[in-house]
């Protein structure tokens, strides 16, 4: 450990990178792994789905360690079409021009995303999903190639994001990331605005618009029903 500490000092690594380096060194030698098929997607605990669906005023979603969206509530889906089950958020922010235009902090966001991915996966380089994701992004995104080659690691943490929304305007939202126990590194991400702020008012307005949109088909169905 002293040698690793000295190496970290020479390389001027921060605390997160130092912890990552020590973690790699502590990995036990492994036998050559047998060929593995891509693992099935782990289901989100039903209680977590019920929890976020019960938050009409707080956008929230669940992602795995690869940034695949596994569950999302209605208000979060209203923030961006890429907050949808099955979407890989890192891929969308790097490759989707519309998503990039939505992200005023795109440079910081992509640095965090790639650094967190590397930190989450550690030395599990034989992970088939990781190889697929890294391979696709390496081919299609110069930005990803640059960031992946830097070997930066970032902790999983919340951030403040400024999101321009076509219906309500710019909203500044704080996100918090919570690890879901008993899962393979699933994360619950919740957005919220400062109480009493204009951002909170805009988020409430978006919530009202979302609720109205969800109720409209139901009203249409009732109005179309013949009277007794």
Summarize the structure.
The chain has helices at residues 2-11, 15-25, 46-53, 74-79, 89-95, 97-102, 106-121, 128-140, 142-150, 198-224, and strands spanning 60-63, 69-72, 159-165, 169-179, 187-192. By secondary structure, the protein is of the alpha+beta class.
Strand-residue proportion: 5-15%
Query: Number of helical segments?
Result: 10
Helix content: 40-55%
Strand order of the largest sheet: 2-1-5-4-3
What is the correct CATH architecture of the largest domain?
2-Layer Sandwich
C-alpha-based Rg, rounded: 21 Å
The overall pLDDT, averaged over residues, is 82
Poorly predicted regions:
28-38, 218-228
How would you characterize the largest beta sheet?
Answer: 5 strands, antiparallel
Order of helices and strands: HHHEEHHHHHHEEEH
Number of separate structural domains: 2
Please report the total strand number as a whole number: 5
Secondary structure class reads alpha+beta
CATH class of the largest domain: Alpha Beta
- Give the CA-CA distance, first to last residue: 80 Å
Based on CA inertia axes, which overall geometry fits? globular
Task: Find the CATH topology of the largest domain.
Answer: Beta-Lactamase
């Amino acid at each position: 450990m002293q040698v690793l500490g000295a190496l970290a000092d020479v390389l001027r690594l921060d605390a997160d990178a130092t912890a990552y380096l020590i973690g790699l060194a502590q990995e036990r030698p492994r036998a050559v792994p047998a060929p593995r098929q891509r693992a099935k997607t782990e289901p989100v605990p039903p209680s977590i789905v019920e929890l976020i669906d019960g938050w009409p005023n707080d956008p929230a979603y669940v992602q795995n360690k690869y940034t695949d969206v596994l569950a999302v509530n209605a208000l979060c889906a209203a923030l961006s079409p890429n907050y949808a089950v099955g979407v890989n958020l890192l891929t969308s922010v790097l490759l989707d021009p519309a998503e990039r235009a939505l992200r005023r902090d795109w440079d910081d966001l992509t640095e965090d995303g790639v650094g967190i991915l590397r930190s989450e996966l550690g030395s599990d380089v034989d992970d088939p999903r990781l190889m697929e994701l890294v391979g696709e992004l390496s081919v299609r995104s110069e930005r990803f190639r640059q960031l992946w080659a830097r070997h930066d690691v970032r902790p999983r943490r919340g951030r403040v994001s400024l999101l321009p929304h076509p219906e309500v305007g710019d909203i500044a939202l704080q996100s918090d990331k919570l690890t879901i126990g008993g899962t393979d590194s699933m994360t619950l991400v919740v957005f919220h605005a400062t109480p009493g702020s204009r951002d909170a008012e805009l988020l409430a307005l978006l919530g009202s618009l979302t609720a109205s949109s969800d109720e409209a088909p139901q009203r249409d169905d009732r109005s179309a029903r013949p009277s007794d």
